[in-house]
Amino acid sequence: MLPIATVQSFADELFSTMSDLPTELEHAAPTGTFASVLAQVTAVLDSGSHGAETPTTTAVSPGASTTTTTLAPALPSATSPVDGTAVVVEAAKFVGTPYVWGGESPSGFDCSGLVQYVYGELGVDLPRTTYTQVKAGTAVASITQAQPGDLVFFAGSDGTPASPGHVGIYVGGGKMIDAPHTGTDVQVQTVSTAGPVVAIRRVLPQTGAGTFTTASVAASSTPASTAPVAVPSSMASLFSEAGTKYGVSPTLLAAVARQESGFTPDAVSPAGAEGMMQLMPETASELRVTPFTPAQAVDGAARLLSGYIHQYGSIPMALAAYSAGPSAVAEHDGIPPYPQTQQYVAAIMKTIGAAT
Fold first, then answer.
1. How many distinct structural domains can be found in the chain?
2. Residues 171 and 249 in one domain
3. Selection from 136, 40, 26 nearest residue 339 by Cα
């Protein structure tokens, strides 16, 4: 028989979770985004199928269809590895959520409440306040050494360097996701906007996709392999050559091709994206490539990704720009809060993370 305290704790947590649901649905009512709310619930209830490969049907020309498989992103749990990218993607879901002092749920967050909730969703327990969170994990010497998922601390208006009053989740490229103060929403902003950084803490091990940087995915002078992505033998050299030419990991290029089309050269999406790398016609025209020719498609995609990587200094943000467009990344100052984009980034980062 369970102790009364354990039962009471569970009951309190269950009541808190259920009491937030009407508020979330109310917030969804003006925009009609009930599907997004329910999808999050379904994802949790359906956790038994996480990490499975999901078949999808992609329309191809001329007038036929083909079944491909895309990797469904696995949601980390307390018993599975959690990387910095998963933390960033989870935090991005709450961009636009109002700041509420003392808030610690999707109906409203304060800065440390957001941090605790995001990590808690990924099975990582953190203390509740900035004063205690700053003692978690290990110290990072400077922002130049920070990785996605690290916690960045500031003295804030109600703290000191020794006991910080504000915290954010580092995204990469000098950006963070945080809940700033009353009257604002959870947002992506430049780290320096919040003032001098007084501490950086890494609460995750230095493994997995979260350790990827521009340098770590750059191609070497010798063509790299596309492991762990299984690539049709006739196409392997395309990724190695384009990766070497533009300084992009062949593994990353192959992972994008698999996610976009399952290596189908004549794939056409409902939105009109074309070819193995799913380039929009106007983008292909600007790149001066024929999207249905694999060599040209991979070359164009490598150029795009190379530019985005150097622009953002972050692989997840580069992938978000490739998927949703740079205008969407600019509008949201980070990974857009679109479920499709978040899943896309998480799936590819999970794939390339296996190579580290």
1. 2
2. no
3. 40
Contact 177, 95 (CB under 8 A): yes
Q: What's the pLDDT score for residue 56? A: 33
Residue 231 sits in a domain whose CATH number is 1.10.530.10
The predicted-structure confidence for 76-100, as pLDDT tens digits, reads as follows 333 345 788 889 888 988 989 999 9
Of 168, 191, 209, which residue constitutes the final position of a domain? 209
The residue among 181, 209, 237 that closes a domain is 209
Q: Partners of 66 in the beta sheet? A: 58
Strands 138-139 vs 151-154: parallel, antiparallel or unpaired:
unpaired
Q: Catalytic residues, which ones?
A: 260
- Indicate whether 275 and 322 sit together in one domain: yes
Residues 281 and 332 in one domain: yes
* CB-based contacts of 87, cutoff 8 Å, min separation 6: 118, 119, 122, 148, 149, 169, 204, 210
Here the CATH number for the domain that contains residue 143 is: 3.90.1720.10
The CA radius of gyration of the chain, in Å to the nearest whole number, is 21
CA distances from 28 to 20, 21, 92, 97, 179 (A): 13, 11, 17, 12, 20
CA triplet 346, 352, 356: central angle to 5 degrees? 125
160, pLDDT greater than 50: yes
Q: Are strands 108-109 and 104-105 parallel, antiparallel or unpaired?
A: antiparallel
Q: Which of 323, 263, 225 is nearest to 70 (CA)?
A: 263
The domain in which residue 172 lies consists of: 84-209
Task: List all residues 6 or more positions away from 127 whose beta carbon is below 8 Å from its beta carbon.
Answer: 116, 133, 135, 136
Residue 221 lies in a domain: yes
Cα(303)–Cα(300) distance, rounded to whole angstroms? 5
Question: Residues 34-46: what's their mean pLDDT?
Answer: 40
Same domain, yes or no, for 219 and 338?
A: yes
